[in-house]
Amino acid sequence: MTDTLRQFPAVSPDAGVIRQVLADAPELMVVSFSFEEGAQGALHSHPHVQSTFVESGRFRFHLDGEEFEVGPGDSFVIPSNATHGCTCLAPGRLVDCFTPRRDDFL
After folding, report:
1. pTM for the predicted model, two decimal places
2. CA–CA separation, 31 and 6 (whole Å)
């Protein structure tokens, strides 16, 4: 079992954001994103289906032209190729799952 447990480095893809892969397999990846207040996840899209769980903090999300706010305990799914991004309203952490794995995060 220890061969399958890997430690991934924490990286800062954008100002005020720390990303760390928590677990991965070709079919699925779990990633933590920690945000400082005011930090942004730039609008983007990808072919992966994404689920997002708000562990802490408060965020305004943009998803295919719609806007909504989420807080601790909220979760939602972002369809494949949907344009999305967020602004952190109160410092917090998101836990995202991607299927298939985001090889660009490795």
Report:
1. 0.93
2. 13
